[in-house]
Amino acid sequence: MHLPDGIITLWQSLIYWILVIITIIIYLFKVSKNEENEKRIVFTAVLAAAAIVTSSISIPSPFGVPIHFFLIPLVAILLGPLSGVAVAFLCLIVQFFLFGFGGITTLGANTLTIGIALSFSTYIFYKFTLELNESLSVFSGTLMGIVIATLTQVMILMSAGVATLEMLMATLIPFYLFIGVIEGATNVFIVSFIAKVKPELLKLNKI
What we know:
0% strand
């Protein structure tokens, strides 16, 4: 989901940048008011480093296109959606300068997709199904978060006039559904493991 520079117009890029800047400001304000800052910052840093590494690794897939896992849904589940946005923003910046993924003008659009849409939709579906079953909520939150993020990217590309709905739905949706199922199952295992060895991490205030 790393859109390169030049694929969307500058005025559209500016709109996405503004949305992301506002979200990051809200996150920083919330963090400044949080009482668990030290533990949260350490845990966020660990997850951010893991997200940078994990999402930079290419894994072969049956679709012929390498898979890059996100890890942002896991951040949103453990620390909250705004934390997911912040980690995604940091991850995208590092990946651009180190690996050439994405772009600077499209950083807002990429953060809107991988950060805002992915984090908030993951957290909403996670909370909505949490009372039914925790494993189900982690899986469904991750899967639906990736689906909503994919649809967000489809809308961004369509509004930029660079692709048709039919082409995007036929290529992006099946590919990211596949990723969503795998990452959802992985997150179920990770959350269950954390619940056994470090259950206090699951009780941090969600931001």
